[in-house]
Model the fold of this input.
Amino acid sequence: MKTKVLELIKDKPKHFSKIIKNSPELYKWILDNTKIQSENFSEMVYSAIYSESNICQNGNTKKFNSINEGYRFCGPANKCSCALASVKEKVTQAKNSYTDKKRKQIAARRINTTLSRYGVKNNAQTEAARQRHKEYYDKFQRKPKPVKLTSYQKLDKKYKLMGNVVFITPEHMYKGVSDQIYYQFKCLTCNNNFDDYIDNGHLPKCRICNPYIPSYTSKQETEVFNFITTITDKTVIQSDKSIINPYELDIVIPDLKLAIEYCGLYWHSEAYKTDKNYHINKMHLCNQKGYRLITIFEDEWTKTPNIVKSRLKNILGTDKKIYARHCTVKLIAHDQAKGFIKEHHIQDNTICKFAYGCFYKDELVAVMTFGIPRYDKTVQYELIRYCSKNTIVGGASKLFAKFVAEYNPQSVISYCDMRWGTGNLYKMLNFVKVDKKLEPSYAYTDFVHRYHRSTFTKGKIVTLENADKTEYQIMRERNIYRIWDCGQSKWLYTIAQ
Done:
């Protein structure tokens, strides 16, 4: 099989990737033998052929050149210790190849050549060279070039002209423009120092003089309520306090024992709610009353409304049903899986090693992906994503069975987001819930977006000025708050089952 792939690369250097992806036998061999997970298929092919990892001996990620050249070092010599060691070795070999006598001969030849041509030991000592240098520096001194402002200096000038804030971050700490890089400003109205970003035309604002005023939360909650009334003929109640009194549930469908919470990012973050267990406790109270609680965050409805609507249709049982016995299942390319997941999964796409698709009349209707475990390294595989277009009855079982039949995994781990799920899907796949207390997790929010907490680890946001502060303290100074979820349940499949 390896020989076939090498011949294919040699004969079809521009089209080998497409040919391999269209060949189930070759594509499966690549996935089975590659040592990496990557969106670059050529890199996966190279890794499979030469059994080479993309991690260097120092634990850094090596850069991939091409299928013919393979990997280079993980960075330049001033950053990559592997490259530095290689450069040092080559320089040492070159120096060691010359004897003292040869070094002196080379230096003597250089001096003799310069003397014979210019009459001096160094060509910079010639009259012509001295005159050129004098003319250049005289010209430079007479007509100095206008000083070109750096990006930092342009920003500094801009905010001084605005007159309401001053850019007080030192220039050596300026790292460019991004909504994830915060700089320090001073409000000239109240003398408050505050952190803010400067991306996409965003103007830094002091939150003392310009407090955040949340908007449209109730309007959007009503939008969700109105949508639900259009997809079910069941009684739908808004703002109910009878089930888990004194707590209020935004939307309740009594006949389905279903409740829905719409959570505005401001009102449900620590800027307003300080109890990290608020959402998970509300879910437990509903479960005790026999109700299932769905918790929707504001940005999910505003950014991916079609995915939220599809999930609600599926939960309410009003979505179109397709039976898996009428479908076929096969391994699919990562790009195809990525596009489908981005369109249908509430948590977006993430890198995987294997992707299986469920097809109904040649149309992709469901995807399940697997990969190397991201968190628990004691298990063999992780079921990373599953999503579908419409309700595919038996789709998850058929996809998982295909993976088990082809790879015979000894163990598979997966996680259920309890804001949306119950874990029943994993029970049908013969997973067992890991006996561990359910704890809430958090993301960060600026009341418009939610950011994964790994975006703002202390190692990424620490500066000389705030090195003695915790991640939490730094983010509070930036007016970015934690928002807590309902936790994730952990599920495990083992071959013994």
Notes: The two ends are 34 Å apart (CA to CA). The mean pLDDT is 86. The longest helix spans residues 100-118. The longest strand covers residues 363-371.
